[in-house]
Q: What sequence folds into this?
């Protein structure tokens, strides 16, 4: 049974705080194992990669092949049904269109003191993409990670993916073909992340690594942060739905279950001001669960992490939502902008009754790689900016250095840095 | 003696690669100590803070006071000489003006399929600023960290700084007053970073932590990345100067020494196409070193990490500079734009003979918190964006979901996620 809370009940504040503070992330301490793997790959390169792949993925890279043959990607795409191919291509086109608007604008100008000041954005040279094997091998995630890099102008994209016993998901290969990926290595786990960061004889190093993975992959990225850029630390996914009583309980139940079916640690929370609707949604969830092929996962997640919270009115819900800083927020009401204006912390917001979160997972255009675990308080979804960096620049004329140089000399002297002061003073 | 290389010499490629790969960062393994400190502060809060402060900073917070009295900041500012106060205020005004142009623009529109799509930027609620005690307590760094947060619209800024034996640098307090910081805690080290991230009874938690610090502080930030946002992992600072023979050797020597004097691990590298000028600079460095109060540090750094590289022409230098991806790059030539156009990786670029790097440290306007250790390949200087996050949003009409919903259903079914499919299909 999901948690049921009522904002009018005694003890609500404490109960809600407990919900906010509940940690759903596994405390698996893999840091020592990962650290050893990173060291081994750094020292022994491809030899270490082959050893780990044999041990963990049960195939011999020299037999199965280190890289995926681009012909296999073309064949996978050709093998798709037309509706599925069309769907992937629509998704790719819409994701591209949305991300193109994220391209940053350079600046260059001269201010009143005669100082030229500006900023120039450039793409990183190479990006690495981790694609999980097995259940979580989603073609949609591949598109969501690669397209921002392509739009940024990244010249080289290297994908790594484990192929347990040599097997690989053809849908993922088809998506790779649509996304234009030409370099795919059949390695996974922390060892693949290490290879991307440090480089090996076969795999050239990259500058940024993104993409989802298990605890080992996440820890490898965390440990390599600074050697390369990474996307955010990712935790279990979550949805908060704010809905009045005018919604179809079945729709809202499906929305909640679309998070619950991801993983036993996923979280789905409904805020509503209508007690009868709350009951109807809870019953609808129970009716829908047995219909799902993902029933086992969804049932576990909904029982362990689901919550239905009754509020006096939906305005009361909004500061509570902000405390959760959810990855996904649905505002299933007639006037979503009224409530959206009150939101400070959320990864992505789905406005109105006709905007289920799942449409954003696939085809709407915004990125579905979003901050989880209350990280929307300080971080954003994956974007073109994650694959670019900004170089500031300045240029002074003789007049300009006369105008602002003396202040620099004064500050350098006060900070006890005489060469700083001299480098300016000599030019005055 | 600094390293001397000549691009025409046999073995240059290998020698330059060794220079690129040389690690100047300390290998101090403080991760276990830091991990223990973080756990203690998380569990015991202010009690742990007081214990560590007594042990490491040798004062009793209950006696010396936990927080700096705002009156002390006002008094410190009032105590400054007029030129120094004017210099700090000019710096603050120019840094503010530059960073105001970094404020991102929101988007909101409806595309051809009738889908409303947009992105909204908001500031984090609270930022924490680490300010070192002792030698590296620089008022300029305080301004460079606080002003982007203020421009972003951050409502609460909490500063922490160690006050060994209770002492604090009045210049730092004056800068805090100019920057409008009202919350300053007399704690430092990994324990202060932990307090900012987790919160204690006295210190409320923040969302982002920035600011320089020693190996313990840097490791604490690294371990807490994900609990909070942080600025980049910072290493020793560095400058690359590209100069033809038409420069004053004394000016360029001062520029090189302005990095060398920071720390024994700092690095200064000159590229020039003029062998006589290279010699003149080396001699000028030797002449200037004894004049510096920072002579000991600068001499060590220049001998251990300095380099003068003779190239056939300055165009040859540019791909080499890109491999170094320097924090600071001076282009001391008549036509700096010609060379700047060839730069892909640099934190900040200083254009022309009249633009010493030190002017950017203090008063030019761009941020002096910049990526070091080749991290300009994938990261940028501190900016307003580090204190903001982006919420994407979308809204569908009944027509819009008819247009793009079926593709989402097809993809959800292919990925084996039936509740995702149902949440869209029910609305079609």
A:
């Amino acid at each position: 049974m999901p948690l049921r809370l009522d904002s009018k009940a005694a003890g609500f504040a404490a109960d809600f705080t407990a919900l906010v503070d509940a940690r759903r992330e596994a405390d698996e301490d893999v840091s020592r194992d990962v650290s050893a793997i990173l060291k081994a790959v750094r020292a022994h390169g491809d030899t270490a990669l082959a050893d780990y792949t044999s041990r963990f993925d049960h195939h011999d890279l020299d037999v199965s092949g280190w890289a995926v043959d681009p012909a296999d990607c073309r064949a996978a795409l050709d093998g798709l049904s037309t509706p599925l191919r069309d769907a992937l291509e629509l998704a790719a086109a819409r994701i591209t269109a949305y991300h193109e608007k994220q391209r940053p604008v350079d600046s260059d100008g001269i201010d009143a003191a005669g100082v030229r000041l500006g900023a120039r954005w450039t793409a990183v040279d190479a990006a690495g993409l981790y694609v999980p094997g097995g259940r979580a091998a989603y073609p949609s995630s591949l598109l969501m990670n690669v397209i921002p890099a392509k739009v940024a102008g990244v010249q080289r994209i290297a994908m790594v993916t484990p192929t347990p016993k040599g097997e690989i998901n053809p849908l993922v290969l088809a998506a790779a073909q649509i996304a234009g990926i030409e370099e795919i290595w059949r390695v996974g786990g922390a060892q693949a992340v290490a290879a991307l960061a440090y480089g090996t004889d076969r795999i050239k190093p990259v500058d940024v690594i993104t993409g989802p993975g298990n605890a080992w992959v996440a820890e490898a990225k965390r440990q390599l942060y600074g050697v390369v850029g990474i996307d955010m630390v990712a935790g279990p996914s979550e949805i908060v739905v704010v809905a009045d009583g005018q919604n179809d309980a079945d729709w809202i139940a499906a929305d909640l279950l679309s998070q619950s079916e991801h993983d036993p640690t996923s979280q789905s929370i409904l805020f509503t001001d209508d007690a009868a609707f709350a009951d109807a949604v809870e019953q609808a969830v129970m009716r829908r669960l047995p219909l799902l092929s993902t029933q086992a996962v969804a049932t576990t997640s909904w029982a362990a992490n689901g919550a239905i919270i009754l509020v006096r009115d939906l305005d009361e819900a909004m500061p509570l939502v902000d405390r959760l800083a959810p990855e996904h927020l649905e505002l299933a009401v007639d006037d979503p902008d009224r409530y959206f204006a009150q939101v400070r912390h959320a990864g992505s917001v789905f406005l109105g009754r006709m905007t289920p979160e799942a449409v954003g997972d696939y085809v709407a255009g915004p990125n579905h790689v979003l901050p989880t675990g209350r990280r929307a308080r300080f971080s954003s979804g994956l974007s073109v900016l994650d694959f670019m960096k900004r170089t500031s620049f300045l240029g002074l004329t003789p007049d300009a250095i006369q105008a602002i140089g003396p202040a620099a000399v004064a500050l350098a002297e006060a900070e006890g840095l005489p060469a700083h002061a001299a480098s300016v003073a000599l030019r005055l």
Q: What stands out?
A: The first helix of chain B runs from residue 12 to 21.
